[in-house]
Design a protein that fits this description.
about 5% helix
Length: about 120
């Protein structure tokens, strides 16, 4: 079973960069069985797919967030990361890492495995 755990700061100031890490167990992030995604949910709003990386290192981003989003990985730690730059209060959300076999499904925020989510607040 794939298990995912998000980690990173719970509070970020406007204009700063949000760094989040997803630690994966039960499967190697270099496996091509899965796409590894970041998905967020602002308070009172729906889920939003942000981007994904696959086992070969190919990366896809949501067009609305591409200019501010960077996804990378560290296979030695079985982790993949999110960097969201120039954050504003509108970036306040619960951030999830997730895994799924179907990239199209994950762009619609349907995934096979989810982390528990981590609350991130952008505030001065």
């Amino acid at each position: 079973q794939v298990q995912l755990q998000e980690s990173g700061p719970g509070l970020v100031k406007p204009s700063q960069t949000l760094p989040l890490t997803c630690t994966v167990s039960g499967e190697s992030i270099t496996s091509d069985y899965y796409y590894w995604s970041w998905i967020r949910q602002p308070p009172g709003k729906g889920m939003e797919w942000m981007g994904a990386i696959n086992g070969a290192g190919s990366i896809w981003y949501s067009p609305s967030l591409k200019s501010r989003t960077s996804i990378s990985r560290d296979p030695s730690k079985n982790q993949f990361t999110l960097q969201l730059t120039s954050v504003t209060p509108e970036d306040t959300a619960v951030y999830y890492c997730a895994a799924g076999e179907d990239l199209a499904a994950m762009t619609s925020t349907r995934a096979d495995y989810w982390g528990q989510g981590t609350q991130v607040t952008v505030s001065s």
